[in-house]
Design a protein that fits this description.
Number of strands of chain B: 16
Structural class of chain B: alpha/beta
Pfam families (chain A): Biotin_lipoyl (PF00364)
Shape of chain B: elongated
Radius of gyration of chain A: 21 Å
CATH architecture of one domain in chain A: Beta Barrel
Number of helices of chain A: 1
Organism (chain A): Prolixibacter denitrificans
Number of domains of chain B: 3
Oligomer: heterodimer
InterPro entries (chain A): Biotin_Carboxyl_Carrier/Decarb, Biotin_lipoyl, Single_hybrid_motif
Keywords (chain A): Biotin
Order of helices and strands of chain A: EEHEEEEEEEE
Number of helices of chain B: 21
Protein name (chain A): Biotin-dependent enzyme
Helix content of chain A: under 10%
Strand content of chain A: 35-45%
Largest sheet of chain A: 4 strands, antiparallel
Distance between the termini of chain A: 54 Å
CATH class of the largest domain in chain B: Alpha Beta
Chain lengths: ~110, ~525
């Protein structure tokens, strides 16, 4: 049952301010963030099978950073452009969820 | 003498098989707070109306020592019966027999009753309570699921198909309910998911309970897979019977007519609807105020609450209501609400149920998440469903009808048969605040006190455009009515549409933005 006097929130559509209730799904929605090209994130949950690089190493575009095993597939995570490994946040054998920063590059 | 012995033998055999997985398994089922498959069928159907088919069917598996196992009825009960004295086909998976797992003969029994329902043009009710595919039967189980999905699709829009989830329904099994018209779930009992918590944990390391992953609440509030949520099996069965009373038995019939009743709540608009279009109220109060006995069966009550859908009756005739809900998210249209309403509109159109649209919405929900979630594609479903529908379509504009949302909510332009507007209606390309900011941008920016000028310009715009008369002058709405006249207009429109003819070009099928 609904509470008798709901606490209405302010909600703006096209400059007009409405009084209304939020839905749970609306309240828990994810805020969009501009992707940072220097963060290599897991695009799928899985296991880090093998690291191919070390901190400080110079890496060319397309070279292997690490192997992420997910859904019975060994996925090669590649360097997006020529650069250097700034920091490695994972180690071999760990299971990681989706969207975790695995490697920071510069 | 011998006949008597045969009859006694038959009774003994029946009794044994009807026990399903046996006393112990039944005890376990009851301990889980669940009714047995047979009890469930009896609870839904009219008393003593059930006729069981294929009671003596046995499985045919030979591998993994399965040939030594007896599985009564192969884990599913099928048959026919009546609800309100009208025939239906029904099946119920029996969790006490090998966990209700689906093997070849189990699936054959289900497809047999599905074929029967389609041929006889009667509703099909499926009760799901199964651990999933019977692994020992290998690819035969997969074949079984596929044959069920094929029939669900073939019967879609021809006979009503109702799925009741009263236990686990996992893996491929979930797709049969997903293909049917209405899915019923019960708190703490229903569990639906493609991959269960244990697989998710081993593969992905994410820990989650069955209830959190695919419980009744999740599917009612978050995924939108379920249409009706109940706290107990008995409440669920009442909901099924209530739904069945509103819908026709097949797509060539109309829903059963009930004796006309006056609403019990009077339409006191001054009390329900605030005159300030930015203040909320509960649109369901208006639906009840125009419906017979003020009875309204809401569908998907907890999902995308910014739009309300469901069945009511007007002068004894079933109508489908689609209504913006200012109480939640100001009644905006978004991905979920468009999806929810569009599917319901297609249901009504398939089953000859007139659609009444009550409109009060400020437009589409702005935001990156909406755009990236495909609000274009989902929003288009609503346009498609309304434009495609040939059942009587009536729109009443209560307050706000702004922008693209005005077009989408069964406007004249999408083929509405009747469009009424209350004097409080604001039919405009956008709300006064937004419009004034754009149209008078220069004046506002160059003014000495911009806020004052903005206020003044908003008022000006309101005066000129935030009303029903601009649209009425173009014939986009048929009549500006007093709120108290709403029910009378709906009754009149429905009686006028009794023999409506509205043909679409012949085609195999359209290509809706699925």
């Amino acid at each position: 049952m609904e509470e008798s006097t709901p606490k209405y929130q302010t909600f703006v559509v096209n400059s007009a301010k409405y009084k209304t209730l939020y839905t749970k799904k609306f309240e828990t929605r994810k805020k969009w963030e501009r992707p940072n090209p220097f963060e290599i994130r897991s695009y799928i949950p899985g296991t880090v099978l093998k690291m191919c690089v070390k901190t400080g190493q110079e890496v060319k575009e397309g070279e292997c950073l690490l192997i992420l095993e997910a859904m019975k597939m060994e996925n090669k995570i590649e360097m997006p452009f020529d650069g250097k490994i700034k920091e490695i946040h994972v180690e071999e054998g760990v299971k990681i969820p989706k969207d975790v920063i695995m490697v920071t590059i510069e | 003498m011998s006949l008597k012995r045969n009859i006694l033998d038959l009774r003994k055999r029946k009794q044994e098989v009807q026990l399903g997985g046996g006393e112990k398994a039944i005890e376990k089922q009851v301990a889980m707070g669940k009714k047995t498959a047979r009890e469930r069928i009896m609870s839904i159907l009219d008393e003593d109306s059930f006729h069981e088919y294929d009671l003596f069917v046995e499985h045919t598996a030979r591998d993994f020592d399965m040939d030594k196992k007896v599985l009564h009825g192969d884990g599913v009960i099928i048959g026919t019966g009546t609800i309100y004295n009208q025939p239906v086909c029904i099946y119920a998976q029996d969790f006490t027999v090998a966990g209700g797992s689906l093997g070849l003969m189990h699936a054959r029994k289900i497809t047999k009753i599905m074929d029967h329902a389609l041929k006889m043009r009667v509703p099909l009710i499926g009760i799901n309570d199964s651990g999933g595919a019977r692994i020992q039967e290998g690819v035969n189980s997969l074949a079984g699921y596929g044959e069920i999905f094929y029939r669900n699709t073939k019967a879609s829009g021809v006979i009503p198909q109702i799925s009741v989830i009263l236990g686990p329904c996992a893996g491929g099994a979930v797709y049969s309910p997903a293909l049917t018209d209405f899915v019923f779930v019960v708190e703490n009992i229903s569990k639906m998911f493609i991959t269960g918590p244990s697989v998710i944990k081993t593969v992905l390391g994410e820990e989650i309970s069955m209830e959190e992953l695919g419980g009744a609440r999740v599917h009612s509030e978050i995924t939108g897979n379920a249409h009706f949520f109940a706290e107990s099996e008995d409440q669920c069965f009442d909901q099924i019977k209530s739904l069945i009373s509103f819908i026709p038995w097949n797509n060539t019939q109309k829903a059963r007519k009930f004796p006309p009743q006056e609403p019990t709540s009077s339409l006191n608009v001054e009390e329900i609807v605030p005159s300030d279009p930015r203040r909320p109220y509960d649109i369901r109060d208006i639906i009840r105020a125009v419906s017979d006995s003020s009875e309204f069966l809401e569908i998907m009550e907890n999902f995308a609450r910014n739009i309300v859908i469901g069945f009511g009756r007007i002068k004894g005739e079933t109508v489908g209501f689609v209504a913006n809900q200012p109480k939640y998210l100001a009644g905006v249209l978004d991905c979920d609400s468009s999806d929810k309403a569009a599917r319901f509109i297609r249901y009504c159109d398939s089953f000859n149920i007139p659609i009444v649209t009550l409109e009060d919405m400020p437009g589409y929900l702005p935001g990156v998440d909406q755009e990236h979630a495909g609000v274009i594609r989902h929003g288009a479903k609503l346009l498609y469903a309304y434009s495609e529908a040939t059942v009587p379509k009536i729109t009443v504009i209560l307050r706000k009808a702004y922008g693209g949302g005005y077009i989408a909510m069964n406007s004249r332009h999408l083929g509405a048969d009747f469009v009424f507007a209350w004097p409080t209606a604001e039919i405009a390309v956008m709300g006064p605040e937004g419009a004034a900011n754009i149209v008078f941008r220069k004046e506002i920016a160059e003014a000495e006190n911009p806020d004052e000028v903005r206020k003044q310009k908003i008022e000006e715009y309101k005066e000129k455009f935030a009303n029903p008369f601009v649209a009425a002058a173009k014939g986009y709405i048929d009549e500006v009515i007093e709120p108290a006249e709403t029910r009378a207009r709906l009754i009149h429109s429905l009686s006028l549409s009794d023999n409506k003819v509205d043909a679409r070009p012949a085609k195999k099928h359209g290509i809706p933005p699925f």
